[in-house]
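Practice problem: predict the structure.
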Amino acid sequence: MSTKPKQTVLCVDDEASILEVLRKLLERENFKVLSATGGKDALRIMAEEAVDLVISDQRMPEMDGTTLLSHIRTKYPHVLRIMMSGYSDFDSLVAAVNEGEIFRFIAKPWQRENLIQVINAALNQREVISRIESVVRNVCSMMELAEKTSIETHPEFQALTVKIGEPEDAFPKEVIMNFLQLLMKSLGMKAEDAWTGTGTISKKGFSVSITIDIGRGVQLKLIVPRLKK
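Answer:
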């Protein structure tokens, strides 16, 4: 029987004692734990190791947590990011959310159960998004739209944006309707769910945007440049 590979968490803090506590706690939960004492060290490790999630302190010398997580967001967008701080610094929290696009902010001292719950929730959410992305890509291939489609997973892993075509492109309405129906069926949903209480449709210029709540805390947004009549 195959066992699920350990997921890797990178902990970043300039206090060695904090890193040691986190290491012991997370290893007991069967995570592989990497440690860095600052932003530069963390980025070096990121370049060498496959990391699933980063937990970073905010107040550190040379590079603060916001700057570090912003770098990670840019270079490693699929890596989840959690900020920790012992300071009641609202401005830092806002910056971390806006610039680093973190999954969650945790105050020090943390509660063990809460920290583990947040980490597991983040990783589970990413797994759900990954499965949905795989379904979307399969449907795009079946509809021969793969080469015209771009898929973006949002850093907080609560939404998936699917863009079909370039701004100057136009698609027959039937093609998009068939794509949407096949996608909904592949996700185990009824096609009409896209047009009822779980979905919204908006237009900006010629562009059509369809947002669908597909459950499990995830939204799917489909953007089409324009529809042919």
